[in-house]
Amino acid sequence: MPHQLLPFLAVAALLTLTPGPDMALVLRNGIRGGVRTAWWTGLGCCTGIAVYAAASAVGLAAVLAASTTAFTLIKFVGAAYLIYLGVMALVHSRKGAPPTDGHGAVLSRAHEPVLGRAQAFRQGLMSNLLNPKIALIFLTLIPQFVSPGEEPFATTAVLAAAFLGMGLLWWRTFSLAVGVLGRFMASERVRTTVERVTGIVLIGLGVRVAVADH
Questions:
Q1: Which residues cross the membrane (predicted)?
Q2: 69, 82, 200, 60: which is closest to 131 by C-alpha?
Q3: First and final CA of the chain: distance in angstroms?
């Protein structure tokens, strides 16, 4: 076990719980589709983190972090994607909230799920894959918790797994909370308001990502 596992978990918890694009996206999808949709969005976010963790292990993340052009390209594509999701949320809010089925899942006018599991997972995945700063977390944060004398690769793998495990626990808890919240937000007016607020937040986060420095 890494000697600095507990301090790392404290920092990882702070990063995980800090509001950002992932939280806004999971909240928005959860309000639209319920617990399962929020959970699958969170799984997509964790998968994106896992991809960067694997990339850092083989050195690809270091190449990305060192290349200003690659970093900037992914940053702008990611910003555009967040803005797109925000705009779509605002467009969706103008159409009014759709009905729900007997299990609390939001349905379209044709009684089909508005946001399926695959789409929710893909949105969470792309939100993280198009965020190059996640690569920097693995390159700059984790090495600080590798003590002298420890095998770097093994320790990094354990810390990355702990980071992912915490993410999975958080998104499961958050998705359940969103489901409870959704039951108190059954009115069309409240759902529309949440859709608009999260849409504006996603657009704002996209702009912030675009103007942020390397």
A1: 40-66, 73-91, 157-181, 193-211
A2: 82
A3: 33
Which structural domain, as residue segments, surrounds residue 133? 20-211
- Distance in angstroms (rounded) separating the CA atoms of residues 181 and 97: 16
Any idea which residue has 């986060």 for tokens? 205
Q: Does the pTM exceed 0.85?
A: no
Tell me whether residue 6 is in a domain: no
Cα 2 to chain center, whole Å?
A: 27
Digit-coded pLDDT (tens) for 94-128: 765 444 444 444 444 444 345 788 999 999 999 88
Residue 45 contacts residue 26 (beta carbons within 8 Å): yes
For residue 98, the Cα-to-chain-centroid distance in whole angstroms is 25
Percent of the chain exceeding pLDDT 90 equals 18
Q: Is residue 139 part of a domain?
A: yes
Instruction: Give the Cα separation of 148 and 141 in Å (integer).
Output: 16
| Token pair for 127 | 């939100």
Q: Could you say which DSSP state residue 105 is in?
A: -
Counted domains in the chain: 1
DSSP codes of every residue in 129-179: HT-THHHHIIIIIGGGG--TTS-HHHHHHHHHHHHHHHHHHHHHHHHHHHH
Q: Does residue 137 lie in a domain region?
A: yes
Contacts of 65 (CB under 8 A, 6+ apart): 71, 132, 135, 136, 139
